[in-house]
Write a structure and sequence with these properties.
- This protein is mainly α.
- It has one domain (1-55).
- It is built from one helix and no strands.
- The chain is rod-shaped.
- This is Ras-related protein Rab-15.
Length: 68
């Protein structure tokens, strides 16, 4: 936790403390987004793997009828 001594009366460290607070919020947001991206990419990879496992290997024999 950061501590900034500020004074609204003399305008001491007001801008600096808000700037630092904004930086900390953005860093936390970036970490959260990186975690979401990592989890999403892992879930997509697992879904693709499951989809590939469920597909039969080799050509599929299917008779199609033309209704022309």
């Amino acid at each position: 936790m950061d501590f900034h001594e500020t004074s609204a009366c003399t305008n001491l460290n007001i801008k600096e403390s808000f700037t630092r607070l904004t930086e900390l919020v953005l860093q936390a947001h970036r970490k959260e987004l990186d975690g979401v991206r990592t989890r999403a990419s892992k879930e997509l990879a697992l879904a693709e793997l499951k989809e590939n496992e469920s597909k039969p290997e080799g050509p599929v024999n299917s008779s199609k009828t033309c209704w022309c």
